[in-house]
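Researcher: Good morning. I'm working through a list of sequences from a screen, and I'd like to move beyond sequence-only analysis. For each chain I'm collecting a predicted structure so we can compare shapes side by side. This is the next one on the list. No need for commentary yet; just the structure.
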Amino acid sequence: MTADDTALRFIVAGKVQGVFFRASTAREAARLGLRGHAINLADGRVEVLAVGPAPAVAELGRWLQRGPPAAQVTRVDSEPVTGPIAGDGFRTG
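Model: Good morning. Structure tokens for this chain:
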């Protein structure tokens, strides 16, 4: 993470698994030039880590409020992430 990067962890709730949420998030993150991940959580939510320029991270946060067409997002929480974050690109898991 560079000094100019912002890193936020989003937790997205609602109908967000089985609706291509992670793949759609990865495409949107790539479009915005972000790195990080989108992973399913055992409780049905999705965790998204977004790292990059603050305006792009904020735009992804707004996109997460609605997600892809089949998703039904009911809540998005976010928190800043500090410290080194390894890896390039955006992965799903």
